[in-house]
TrEMBL record:
Organism whose genome encodes this protein: Chelativorans intermedius
Top-rank lineage group of the source organism: Bacteria
Protein name, UniProt field: tRNA(Ile)-lysidine synthetase
Amino acid sequence: HADIAPLLATGRRMAAARALAGEEAAAFIARHARLAAPGLLRLAGAATRAEGETALYALRILLAVAGGTSHLPDEARSRALQARLEEDGLRVTLSRAVVAVRRGAVYLHREGRHLPRLDVAADLVWDGRYRVAECRQAEALTLAASGRENVPPPESGEEAPRGLARAAAAAEPAFWQGGLCLGRAVPGVVLQPVAGPWARFLPCFDLAAARAVLRLIGGVPPPPSPWRGHNDDDR
């Protein structure tokens, strides 16, 4: 037991450090990130350069959420991207997400490749970005990307450049029956946005970051951890 104690203490310190980093990233996201259009995240470009490591962690979280991935992108590649976010007109991909810089703002959306087409079922997670939260539809449906042909031209706006908004909307899910796109509103079926890194499992030290991004994308924030403080040594 004496040999285990130092390992447990190290684990607690690492968990506390990660929780603090998550809380700082959550505050950054709440201050600087917006949902500019369906599927399109907007981040204040100046903040990504001014807030150093916190901005980098928040950027990695938002890349994973936009791309629907279960893991955050590589730190070194994310740091290299962060250094380029003042390049107006920049357009790159990382972690299945398109990153575009327009007039000092950073936009992120799912790239239009390798989008799944899945039969609709209860609790299905589609592309790491949406969950079928309710399914009372008897007829066979599939869930797939909307596609550009089914996306109306978006209205231009300061927070949503037309081309980016349309590309983001084309990668958003829609219900299909046969070859017919039914859109997002189907009686008896409910879709909820989820955050890819925590779509199936949410460690307690990631709660703050998960809540921040779920509020951002219109998902259902998780409840407080029932285990927090259950051990006197963790207080």
